[in-house]
């Protein structure tokens, strides 16, 4: 699996694009990160055809601090393992928040990105979940 079908169609439809038929490694990385951002900002139950797609309602979990850390961490990992097949050996690690009184959790996500030609490469990025359940990947 490379970039999404809609992304490939958009590139192919642009006659002035220099990258019309060429995909680079960073395109796959960006496609995976974009998908994760959409998926983790979707609440389970939002998809009629796939009710477990997305993340649990995090805003309700954050009030069960510190138990919420492990629950959210496992939910992120399980969602990625189930719905992002291009990323293997996924690890989600909680990053301790040093700022008191803030209602957000930070995680580091690592995994192996599998390219269509069989190559693999490490991928690492951070993500934060705020008190409303919004997930930011950056």
UniProtKB/TrEMBL annotation:
Domain IraD/Gp25-like as annotated: residue spans: 27-113
Pfam family, one: GPW_gp25
NCBIfam families: VI_zyme (TIGR03357)
PANTHER family per the UniProt record, alphabetical: CYTOPLASMIC PROTEIN-RELATED, TYPE VI SECRETION SYSTEM BASEPLATE SUBUNIT TSSE
Protein's recorded name: Type VI secretion system baseplate subunit TssE
Organism: Polyangium spumosum
